[in-house]
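User: Show me an example of a complex going from sequences to structure tokens.

Assistant: Sure. Here are the input components:
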Amino acid sequence: MASFASSFDQRALGELNRFTQNATLADVESALARSEANGKRLSLADFAALVSPVAAQPPYFEAMAQRSHELTVKHFGRVMRFFAPLYVSNECINVCKYCGFSRDNPILRVTLTADQVAAEARYLREQGFRHILLVAGEHPHFVSEHYLRDCVSRLHPEWPSISLEVGPLETGQYVPIVEAGGEGLVVYQETYDREVYDAMHVSGPKKDFDWRLEAPERGYAAGFKRLGIGALLGLAPWRAEAIALAAHAAYLLKKCWMAQLTISAPRLRPAAGHFEPLMNMSDRELVQFVCALRIAFPEVGLVLSTRESAILRDHLVPLGITLMSAGSHTEPGGYTGQGREELHLTKGGRMVRPELPMIQSEGEHATVQFEIADERSPAEVAARLQQLKYEPVWKDWEGALNEA
Amino acid sequence: MTDKPLVVNARDEPQQLRIANREFRSRLIMGTGKFASGQMMASALEASGAEMVTVALRRADLSGMGDKFANILTFLDAKKYVLLPNTSGARNAEEACRLARLGREATGSTWLKLEIHPDPRYLLPDAVETLKAAEMLVKEGFTVLPYINADPVLAKRLADAGCATVMPLGSPIGSARGIETRAGIEIIIEQATVPVVVDAGLGAPSHAAEAMEMGADAVLVNTAIAIAADPERMAEAFKYAIIAGRAAYEIGLALKRKEADATSPLTGFLE
């Protein structure tokens, strides 16, 4: 099987997009009926019907929500798995218009040492987390594959599950990370629209659309057991992103058949650089998207971060979400202040006045990637889940399963 | 006077379920995943009458440090229930064996549900890796209960390798589709020299009754109980269905052979 990039048929996606815009209630009913019939897989056309404007009408919208709830409970149970993001570096050589870490943004940056990463992780462990996601900007010098492997090695003895969300690497570069105990690889395409992608990614390795698109497949070839994909909502029209994301998921489910797939649909949040979303996606549309994903892909994990408000997150719990973070910080050293002495300001990719200490006040910290919306602590979110009659599951893996 | 179905069976048909060196009154084994809480799981378990319960080692605290964030085992009274750790999450024999050994150290249990499913969508068991792992683990002294597709040849190979049971699936885990593998399960039951436990896909008590009527020695149920609107009541419903199905099997469902007729229309000419 060739890569998704080579089979990423723009014409077929174009047809699906037209279908979505013209879908009828009968198309929506047909998709829902297929979901009810045992063992019947939904097609991408069915998915397109479910994300269509007509599907948002009553009673179909509620019917989708009910079906999504049933399927999620059936496949995943009345549980919610927890994970914590741990930002290890916000150094980045890419210029991306929407991201707080964009190279040209004048922000405070730092790369944590493996010791500092371990200290942050220890704090997260005390909060209850047993699944961790290491996140970093893309920088060949500060965030090399050796550095990432070292971080994973340090954490592996204490962490049942370690995933990474970092700049795309070659298969051969992923292998040592997997061998050190890395289990999951998350790479969001951000937008599946080539033109928008080109406009948003001004310079740097991230400009290569296909290289990024094929990263999950390279990760799988290297031995990653979990693959996470997603689109950043707010750049291109959401229905088109949804359809492309579904096509990507369907492809990976066949090719990377041994990997547990997760999908995420983060909406753009305020960040350094003050990028304004090109389009808005309403809460209602987000719910429709989540439900459509669940109905089309009953066994795929759906991730919801702290980007969304507490109220919306609580309402999404029974609607298809299976993985949540809580109490998150999107800056390196955000949990325990690690690395504050090494903070430095960069402008246009260059360090500014490196000889002067950067800490102006006690509160100075690295710049966040984006502002979170749900500021509840992990314990608060766990308690709320229990109120909603869900079991918070902190540990659902074992490190021994990640050994070479 | 009733006629038992005329089937010559190499197995003993004891009153109680016998697996390895233990006897069980209950023919229901319960799973512990997907429940809304540990308490809910424990009360459903109580209601089910099950005496053996399976737990995913990946959920459990294997560190021996009393990890309260991985406390699923604390909800299971080791004095009341036989713990059957499972290797769910393992994708090959090596991973399953590693996990099994860790599990034995942590729980003290040498019983193991061998579960290897590399495909996270349907969670169907890998025959090749399961046989490989079973052979290794039996040699290491585990009491191995392997989860398999309803493959009669694989079942014989596993029994020959020393497994304590075979556990063929009715349909994919969590699918609630009941017994879709009837033909394979019938052959397995007919040929088995170890107890046969139908495991996975049993979505309703009637499915469990059906498995028992076919002659299964026990069933394993998880999802159907865990996600039910009232897990305790559902557990109880399964308990009764299994008792009912087993009774029907023991009494014999085969048509009674009629008393010999006075007339013998086909063979009378030989008199």
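The lines above are the inputs; the final block is the predicted structure for all two components together. The domain at 66-397 of chain A is CATH 3.20.20.70 (TIM Barrel).
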